[in-house]
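User:
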Amino acid sequence: MDTKAQILEAARQLYNVQGMKKVSARVICRELGISPGSYSYHFPDSQVVVLRLYEMMQAEIMEIAQQLKHLEVGVLSYLETHKQLFLIQKKYKFFFLNLFEILTNNEAVRTLYQQNRQAERQLARDMILFYKHKGILTQEVDEHIIERMVNVGQILNNFWALDAELNAYANDQAMLVHYMKICCGLLAPYLTPDAMVTYNHYFEELEEGRTKKRE
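Assistant: Predicted structure:
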């Protein structure tokens, strides 16, 4: 890993643990054992560090979204995809914990975020319509329901990390189960009977994993 990549990785980890306000360029340099000059050579403006980390997160999210096209269509692929998205968001949780501050102070990130936000909304809408067409969702899913699921889903994705910081969990698996149920639960009332069987079985296994890790 070169110095630039090391700086980004150290910044991500430190932002997650200590919070962005407590992590200066000097803190990152001390963590890596590099000089301020070396840091400035790669990142003359610390705002670019946040921009690059956001771009890295989005690249990982898009990779997961692309993989969805090659998976067997069904509620299981939907749940597994959301599990991977959850893990990515957790990896970059500092972004969601500091969302308002970042979007207010970092114009480059704000511009990309707004573009990605619209693309994510369209992707979610297309997915819901596709699942309805495939008989995974019931035919009662109309435009009003779709709009609500897209809006609520986007709010949950943006703010679950903040909510998680206010709660205590036995382990990361317990946190995963809790927020997977909340986010994926948006579709649950509209799943067809067969899809609901798969949905319930998936969460039963996820719950068992949580229990085993707790033990």
